[in-house]
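Re: Re: ligand-bound prediction request (bumping)

Still looking for help on this. To restate: I need the protein modeled with pyridoxal-5'-phosphate bound, output as structure tokens. Inputs repeated here so nobody has to scroll up.
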Amino acid sequence: MIKTDLDQRLRSLKAELGSSILVAVSKYSPIDDVAMAYELGQMDFGENRVQDLEEKAAAFATRGLKDVRWHFIGNLQSNKVKELLKIPNLWSIHSVSSKKLVEEIIKREGEFKGEELKLFFQLNTSHEDEKSGFDSVEEMLESMLFLKKHGGPKLVIHGLMTMGSVRSEDFEAAALKCFGDLKNARELAQKELGLSDLKLSMGMSQDYKMALREGADYIRVGSAIFK
Ligand SMILES: *Cc1c(COP(=O)(O)O)cnc(C)c1O
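Reply:
Sorry for the wait, this slipped through. Here it is.
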């Protein structure tokens, strides 16, 4: 990776962001490239496998890159929650996708050494089978309520997450529909659960521009940065 190219790509993305936050998805990138992005001022990174995140977090710690904020964005299995929560500088989980997972996170809260763990509830707005996430808003609200009632003080309901549809003739229209559905779900969640200011995590390399237009608070971009 050539540093000036990476710098250029990060700068041009940041110019589009406004007040939204860029999560640089580093899942396909070697540690040297990720560390280079950090040195260029990028603090938020996303990983989708617990083991990869563990390795990258350990490498960052070894290099003394201590202000990093790790976002877990992948499909999460209950038996990996304990390991995940132990990872230093874990900032958020964007992929809370079942009641079972919520229960496990509550059970393992003691493993988390940070001050606050931001949780996003993932809604499967495209209804594509290979995507995880709650299948219905009702199920998601039930799990959010469960967390609100039973979760400890470090577990914060921070927002909602979705992925735009990929298998579609007109992917722009399909992505817009997904993002619109997430916005509607947020409105309902805020009303039903008495929460305010829930954030939206939506948009990847191919559809982040639309997500920003639809009010994304976090975009998760990988290949457009680390190609
Ligand atoms: C890989 C991934 C991204 C980033 O995808 P790109 O197309 O590389 O930008 C975003 N969100 C999730 C959940 C991912 O798994």
